[in-house]
Write a structure and sequence with these properties.
alpha/beta; cell shape; 4 helices; LD_TPept_cat_dom; glycosyltransferase; 12% helix; globular; peptidoglycan L,D-transpeptidase activity; 25% strand; nine-stranded mixed sheet; 232 residues; L,D-transpeptidase catalytic domain-like
C-alpha cells in the first residue's frame, strides 16, 4: 500500500502549447522558491569518473521530437552520477528500488549488482513508501497539475486541461507511471532537466532522474516492472 501526503499528476489530456509563466521547478516543488546552483562537482567522483567522462555520459541526446541538451554536471554532486554498484537483494532482475533517504534509484541487475542513479524525491510532507508497478510508459508525456496543487498554486490552473509534452514540461522526455491494483497512483518516475535538484527533496512525491539517466532506465524497463519505494 502506498502511503502519501500529496500526488503529482500526469493524466493524458490535450492542452494548449506551453507559454511563459510558472517555472518548471516551481511546478515540481509546488512553490515559487527556486534552488540555487549547488556547484558541487569536482575533478573526479569517488568512483573515479572524471568531469570530462561525466560530461560525455550526460551529453546531448538526439530525439525524434525534441533535441535533448547536455546536463550541466557541474551542478551535480559526483556521487549521484550513474554507476554500477554491489546490491544484494532477493528481488528479480529489473526491479526498481527507490531509496529516498539517500536520493538514489536502483535497477537490479544480475550477479548481485545494480545500476544506481541519483534522484530528486518528495519534499517534507509529500514523501511516500510502498510497492507499485509500472502500469504505463510515456515519451514526452502531457502533464496535468492535480487539484491539490492548483489549490496551493492557483497560477497552475491554466494547465488544468494538460500541458503538452516538451522541454518545459515538468515530466520531461520519459515517464514511468506507477500503478497499484490496476489504478494509477498519480506518482511517476520522470526525467528532470534541472540538475541542481538531484540529491534534494523538491517534488510533490514523484521521483526525478537526470534526463540521460531516465532514458537509460526507461529503455530497460517494461510495463509491469515492480517498483519498491523505501521509507525515508
Amino acid at each position: 500500500m502506498i502511503r502519501s501526503a500529496g500526488p503529482f499528476s500526469s493524466a493524458p489530456h490535450k492542452g494548449e502549447a506551453p507559454r511563459a509563466g510558472l517555472s518548471r521547478r516551481a511546478f515540481l516543488a509546488g512553490s515559487a522558491v527556486s534552488l540555487g546552483a549547488l556547484g558541487l562537482a569536482g575533478c573526479a567522483s569517488q568512483d573515479g569518473m572524471t568531469l570530462a567522462e561525466a560530461q560525455k555520459l550526460y551529453g546531448p541526446v538526439p530525439d525524434k521530437k525534441f533535441a535533448i541538451p547536455a546536463a550541466d554536471v557541474s551542478k551535480v554532486d559526483p556521487k549521484y552520477f550513474r554507476r554500477t554498484v554491489p546490491y544484494e537483494t532477493k528481488e528479480a532482475v529489473g526491479t526498481i528500488i527507490v531509496d529516498p533517504a539517500n536520493y538514489y534509484v536502483y535497477r537490479i541487475e544480475e550477479d548481485g549488482k545494480a545500476t544506481r542513479y541519483g534522484a530528486n524525491v518528495g519534499r517534507d510532507g509529500f514523501r511516500w513508501n510502498g510497492e507499485a508497478y509500472v502500469g504505463r510508459k510515456s515519451e514526452w508525456a502531457t502533464w496535468t497539475p492535480p487539484r491539490e496543487m492548483i489549490k496551493r498554486q492557483p497560477e497552475a490552473a491554466k494547465w488544468a486541461g494538460g500541458m503538452p509534452g516538451g522541454l518545459d514540461n515538468p515530466l520531461g522526455a520519459r515517464t514511468l507511471h506507477l500503478y497499484q491494483n490496476g489504478s494509477y497512483t498519480l506518482y511517476t518516475i520522470y526525467a528532470t532537466s534541472d540538475p541542481e535538484t538531484i540529491g534534494s527533496g523538491i517534488t510533490s512525491g514523484c521521483v526525478g532522474l537526470l534526463t540521460q539517466d531516465m532514458i537509460d532506465l526507461y529503455d530497460k524497463t517494461p510495463v509491469k516492472t515492480k517498483v519498491i519505494v523505501l521509507p525515508a
